[in-house]
């Protein structure tokens, strides 16, 4: 935790001028991130002149804060015991640290208990802090952060409480930030709006206890458990395995009763009618009392019991027809109302339900008694609490009138006044657990009823005078089947033992030994990510798996493009993991997504860091290669315990990352054979895994090492993407792909065939070493957008350069890179090409027109390239045209595109009768 502030020179009587707290940016981490593994909200603030005001210098601040949020006294903070945070307040701590604790306490008080947080200074930016805290609900978490900032600022001395940038958090602020109760009420309302119902919430909790991934698919109750082809979906207690025919049967009460009767199960006699006259006629053939209910109703709506005469019957039919055109009139079975829950053919819970009622005290009206019952904190609106509030409506007033009472009646002491005909919890009823009491006959009848309807999860409304005795003996039977039964009465009965009814549902969806997860391969690095993803994807397809894949060019299924986009972030990863056709996910995982939102999954089976070189530095607080390595290291830090971390032994940053990698480390290296590093030899002597390129004159042999065992897989030159073994960067990518697939258990033959089938064609790997040839001119299109990438491409250019031809390049680099990186790109280009056309990214990335080209030119001139061989064109397509026009037989033209697909199309059509459909012929090396 943070060290205590020391400000010996500050003057407590002075309030300096200048800005106070400013909100700089925000993030919601949904997966593991650079600060930790838990989902967290991050708010970066600039304390400005508040940096000179720790809490021990703020008069009455601590006292006022604790008066509004006394629960802060229980926060242990770094002392790990109650009172620790208060101790820090008195000693003096950052206001960012205070905001962190207030955000946690506000959420806890609102009903979403959270306790983890951290506040860290931003390196190189004095006064800047990242405030991080866990959340239960995303919207409530960010609102809690905004409310915490506003509350803390409102308690500061005059002149110090100004806050800027709060609108960046996207939160509607209450009128009085010092009113902690109002802040908590606002958070509670957000939680209420976003909360899952008790049934769905219990299933989600049960899945998480078993380590099953949970994804909420909409704002209601549609939930995905698991990933890809191993997923299951639920909506409340309806599962993906629930038969639609079974649901239709349960929804037709008349059909349900017919099927149950034909199965020999006890059901009441009755008929379906459409009018009062039909009901009166039918009643003559039935035994009183009767029950009248809509044919397709639910939650007890429109149900009338104890119908004993024609007038009551007509009124009951009118009430039922308000909820459906057809009405059931049937004999009322004897006994109390029970709900029996059957899951996967077995009874898992029984609850005896009692209708809503009040008990007279001799001086309170029925309306006042209802209000008193509703004061029970367990009662809430709808299904949000264990019990539902009792609401006076027309049905209640009619029932009271039948007994000669109104809401203003004062019942005598101890008199029980029934307020509902039915015992549904949704109308204010209560429940008593009777699971241990049910008679075996009644259990069997319930299980047979669920089977007769074909329901995997079935709520059976069962009337019995005594559930502990056989209904064959006492009378009673089944009155209804429910295809989407609520679990609330079993999870939190009014009395009796609570039952874990969600666990059996999850066990039925995912029997023990069946995984809910598909394998996840996550690949990061500065260069080579897309190519390696495609290599791994091709190998796994060769192995017979359906592969979902994300790259910077899109989301793919078995190599077919589903969505064109830069799909290297967490949102695209989740898209693949939601696809029910995907057997294995291969994910390009770029630094931007990790910084913005964290990982898009909760753990990879195989994670790889290919390399870490200087790129994107100076962006999002990442200013050094070491910091960039920390970001990319998140991938291997979150590999499953029994998974594999694949790392480049030739890269010093990858060797640094290895200290924190999880799972079993597998190294790959271009330096095999006699050149193998001592570190790698020790790794193999200890029984480790590695994949190396053992050198020879044709590009070397890919060798798998398992301890002291040596498996020669194939010559690197047999992989088309290596251009006969000269493209070393694709050999390195192939080594990583082999390491990932072999570690995961893919057969050697599938690895070989997958790599032999992998080419660098545009269709296979757009923008990655794509080559074409026409009229003796060879053209390469490659997305080498940083110095390391251009150096690697330069090695290929040197090998392909004709004896008498020139190498002409169109070179660029994104404008958001540092000046020194842009200049270096120009210097490298001067060493690779005989003539260069520099061009700029389409949007300039914040730089004025021409500035990037000027810096690139500066680098090329510094490297000694004559000015007459340097050309500057801002527009990408004009620059491509210029390069193509310069080509002569024997030349090698190299184009580094931003708009890969459009540039490739431009190359195909250049200098030929394009209208006639002629295209350039793919080059042969």
From TrEMBL:
Enzyme Commission number(s) of this protein: 6.3.2.29, 6.3.2.30
Keyword Protease tagged: no
Gene3D superfamilies for this protein: ATP-grasp fold, B domain (3.30.470.20), Mur ligase, C-terminal domain (3.90.190.20), Mur-like, catalytic domain (3.40.1190.10)
Keyword presence, Transferase: no
Top enzyme class: ligase
Record's catalysed reaction(s): [L-4-(L-arginin-2-N-yl)aspartate](n)-L-aspartate + L-arginine + ATP = [L-4-(L-arginin-2-N-yl)aspartate](n+1) + ADP + phosphate + H(+); [L-4-(L-arginin-2-N-yl)aspartate](n) + L-aspartate + ATP = [L-4-(L-arginin-2-N-yl)aspartate](n)-L-aspartate + ADP + phosphate + H(+)
Domain spans labelled ATP-grasp: 257-510
Keywords in alphabetical order: ATP-binding, Ligase, Nucleotide-binding
Function comment: Catalyzes the ATP-dependent polymerization of arginine and aspartate to multi-L-arginyl-poly-L-aspartic acid (cyanophycin; a water-insoluble reserve polymer).
Family according to the record: In the C-terminal section; belongs to the MurCDEF family.
Subunit structure: Homodimer.
Entry protein name: Cyanophycin synthetase
